[in-house]
Structure formats: structure tokens, C-alpha cells
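Suppose you are handed a protein chain with no further information: no name, no annotation, nothing but its sequence. What can you learn? This example shows the usual starting point.
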Amino acid sequence: MKLVWHPPFCGVEHVRVLAWTCECRATFYELCQSGGQAFIRSTLQREPERQIKETYRWPLRQAYDVWTALLRGEVR
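A reasonable first move is to predict its three-dimensional structure. Written in C-alpha cells, the prediction is:
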């Protein structure tokens, strides 16, 4: 499965990071929750600034399933 990545949604004020991968890698991921929905944020640490992308919003349970698949290498 391939994830569809979008620019960050600007209308979100409060985002809670539920889980994350190590920032020691060039690209790291965060499982985020906002407004009753969840999504995955990808951050590419590149000079001169970071490149941030986000997935669609899902119900929390579905987002956890996608997060687990991402960590297992089943999605990208």
C-alpha cells in the first residue's frame, strides 16, 4: 500500500503527537491526533528547512492500523 502525502493542513491549531519514530533518521514519522481524527506526519530533515507532509485524516483506530503497517514496512 502506498500512502498519499499532502502539504500540512493549516487549519489545525492543536495537534497531539501519539507516537513517533527516531529523529536520528533523515525522515521521521509522527502519529498525530487532532479534532477526533488521526493522521501521520512525515518530516524530511533537509537543509535549509524541513519538508513536512501529512496523510489523510482517519478515525483513530484506522490510523493506528496504518501506523503499524508503516512501522512494519507494509506501507510507504
